[in-house]
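Please fill in the sequence for the structure shown.

STRUCTURE ENCODING:
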């Protein structure tokens, strides 16, 4: 989670596994939008000598729709290239890596960025951009902050890009939630109760690989402008990310590796956090990953009648009686996840993209960023710059979506419904216990180092 190992096939292909997508108006540069797409879940910082890296054979893409039909209007493509400098050593590095062009780094990786606009030809924005190495330890990567800074590149069009390892920014009590839906702060109320205990962040100490792009707002909007009216339909964009592989894989015995041939086929995608993870049935998750957002009406029934909304009253007897008695389709979730919130529901706000049901992050770029005390519960708590208006790295999306599923957002569309008291306080009990988020691009914290990391102690 948010979409770490969320489907059977992509869980076997981690370099193509899209874990999280973020889209927000940059708090320190409010005339820009920052787009982040993370891949390669659950990275152990000590995982050498073959440390984690992007896949040279994977096409990574971030898509933006601005016409209301959930089809890409602007796509940014990222292709990676890895080389080995010294073929006589097994080492990732042969000495301290004091810069991203250090000859001591034996396996450097670089990439290109291409922009594709609907109806136009692809345009190469930059190539041979250096990634940073992974965070190995104080001897191998003695000043990781400086190395990461060298990998932030300004490219044409006032755009900024970074691609490399970051600290996991998503937090969730994985061990608890997958143990029959236990919410660790409230497990004494579970059908199978246990003593109260604080939540445990299951992603603590782990890293991901992030593709981060900061672009002028006008690069993404329908009319190429920077809207200022949140109620203007042209102020809303839809965002999702994908990973694709060529269709044919051939084993080359002479090289000792696979080669890929043929057209690209999508193997992973992600818009809203947790959509494929906890809404799509397991038997359909792989199909969902290979399909396009504009076809998501096939999955609308699972949003209208989410399995988790049925499980909460069953697993927590007597805690959610109003939710248990609610028999209508969940129009609130259909709006939040599949169409955006239309005008008139939240005063002064909308992020409606039209009637096409599609899983996308929907960002109203005319809503200014909250720069003082942003609320991690986002729009539900009155902070319109937060999820489900796009998604910031600080947003506690697990808590937000748990409360929504538990009925906290039903009154937005059905004023006759009174949420259960638990709906406004339910949480998985975790916070970010990895490296602190950054105040500037690329916003996700610096990755945990291999030498510095102490593995956890398994429980009985």
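FILLED IN BY: designer on duty
SEQUENCE:
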């Amino acid at each position: 989670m948010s979409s770490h190992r969320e489907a059977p096939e992509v869980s076997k292909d981690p370099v193509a596994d899209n874990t999280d997508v973020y889209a927000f108006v940059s708090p320190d540069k409010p005339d820009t939008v920052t787009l982040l797409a993370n891949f390669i879940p659950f990275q152990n910082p000590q995982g050498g000598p073959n440390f984690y890296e992007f896949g040279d054979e994977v096409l990574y893409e971030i898509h933006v729709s601005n016409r209301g039909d959930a089809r890409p209007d602007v796509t940014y493509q990222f292709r990676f290239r890895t080389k080995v400098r010294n073929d006589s050593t097994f080492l990732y590095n042969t000495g301290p890596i004091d810069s991203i062009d250090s000859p001591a780094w034996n396996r450097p990786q670089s990439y290109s960025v291409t922009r594709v606009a609907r109806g136009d030809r692809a345009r190469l924005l930059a190539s041979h951009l250096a990634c940073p190495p992974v965070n190995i330890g104080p001897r191998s990567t003695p000043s990781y902050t400086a190395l990461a800074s060298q990998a932030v590149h300004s490219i044409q069009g006032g755009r900024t890009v970074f691609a490399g390892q970051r600290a996991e920014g998503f937090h969730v009590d994985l061990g608890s939630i997958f143990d029959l839906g236990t919410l660790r702060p409230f497990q004494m109320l579970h059908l199978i109760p246990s003593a109260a205990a604080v939540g445990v962040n299951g992603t603590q100490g782990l890293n991901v690989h992030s593709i981060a792009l900061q672009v002028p707002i006008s690069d993404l909007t329908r009319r190429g402008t920077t809207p200022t009216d949140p109620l203007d339909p042209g102020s809303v964009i839809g965002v999702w990310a994908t990973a694709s592989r060529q269709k044919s894989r051939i084993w080359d015995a002479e090289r000792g590796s696979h080669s890929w041939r043929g057209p690209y086929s999508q193997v992973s995608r992600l818009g809203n956090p947790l959509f494929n993870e906890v809404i799509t049935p397991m038997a359909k998750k792989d199909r969902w990953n290979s399909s396009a957002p504009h076809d998501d009406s096939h999955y609308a029934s699972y949003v209208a009648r989410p399995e988790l909304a049925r499980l909460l009253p069953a697993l927590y007897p007597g805690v959610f009686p109003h939710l248990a008695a609610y028999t209508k389709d969940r129009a609130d979730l259909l709006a939040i996840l599949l169409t955006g919130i239309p005008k008139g529901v939240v005063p002064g706000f909308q992020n409606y993209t039209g009637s096409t049901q599609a899983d996308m992050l929907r960002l109203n770029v005319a809503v200014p960023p909250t720069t003082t005390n942003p609320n991690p519960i986002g729009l539900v708590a009155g902070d319109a710059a937060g999820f489900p208006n796009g998604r910031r790295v600080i947003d506690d999306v697990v808590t937000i979506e748990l409360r929504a599923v538990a009925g906290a957002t039903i009154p937005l569309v059905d004023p006759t419904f009174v949420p259960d008291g638990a709906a406004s306080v339910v949480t998985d009990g975790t916070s970010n216990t990895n490296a602190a988020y950054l105040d500037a691009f690329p916003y996700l914290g610096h990755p945990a180092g291999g030498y510095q990391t102490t593995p956890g102690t398994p429980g009985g």
